[in-house]
Amino acid sequence: MPKPRYKRVILKLSGESLQGKQGYGIDPSTLHRTASRIKELTYLGTQIAIVIGGGNIFRGITSATKGINRTTADYMGMLATVLNGLALQNILEKIGVHTRVQTAIDMHQLAEPYIRRRAIRHLEKNRVVIFVAGTGNPYFSTDTTAALRASEINADILLKATKVDGCYSDDPVKNPRARKFTHLKYIDVLKKRLKVMDSTAISLCMDNNIPILVFKMGDIKNAILGKKTGTLIN
């Protein structure tokens, strides 16, 4: 069996990655496919923590521009991440992957409260840990949550799964001439205003020396093994 390059990782999944082609909510077949890929990674021996977004159900910052108070909208978005986290946990458990959901907002009937030492202990026991409800504070994205949790649990790398195979100079879907980057420095991402992650998340990773790999979800096994894929930011 191939040896993974990373012992402990944070996998950042967008909420949209679970909606499939239906454009909203959770697509069961997409959810199962995502869970199966994560299960495959557990066989490699890598400790996996996941931060999941909620944009397939509710996006706080967008709704704030449509009349909902920004703080309220952000809390609603946090609740959407809980729905996604519970759905992913359910499928992972069904296919034999021991999983824990930890939330930044207390809801004891649904998930454990986020406790750093407990999260690390779960990972050491080869359980997948899903972090939901963002940081528990408005005005912070789930990208920032991923950077924060990666720093707190001493992750080797932050893996950012996207629909495209890395960072580009422009949206490759809209601009076929967009140039792909194979390697970037943190400061380059900030200077070029590349929209791969928000500036708070990039700065947090830069301050704590957490590398970021931006890649297409289908290449996640190659990413864990350290094979050349996506765009590395360090």
What can you see in these coordinates?
This protein is an alpha/beta fold. Helix content is 37%, strand content 19%. The chain is built from 8 helices and 11 strands. It is globular, with a radius of gyration of 17 Å. The model has no long low-confidence stretch (mean pLDDT 93).
Largest sheet: 9 strands, mixed
Name the strands of the widest sheet in spatial order: 4-3-5-2-1-6-10-11-9
In the CATH scheme, the class would be Alpha Beta
Q: How much helical structure, as a percent, in the residues?
A: 25-40%
Class per helix and strand makeup = alpha/beta
Mean pLDDT: 93
- Give the domain tally: 1
Number of strands: 11
Number of helices: 8
Strand content: 15-25%
Gross morphology: globular
Strand/helix succession: EHEHHEEHEHEEEEHHEHE
In terms of quaternary structure, the protein is single chain
Gross CATH architecture:
3-Layer(aba) Sandwich
Query: How far is the N terminus from the C terminus?
Result: 28 Å
Low-confidence stretches: none
In the CATH hierarchy, what is the superfamily? Answer: Acetylglutamate kinase-like
CATH topology call: Carbamate kinase
| Radius of gyration, CA atoms, in whole angstroms | 17 Å
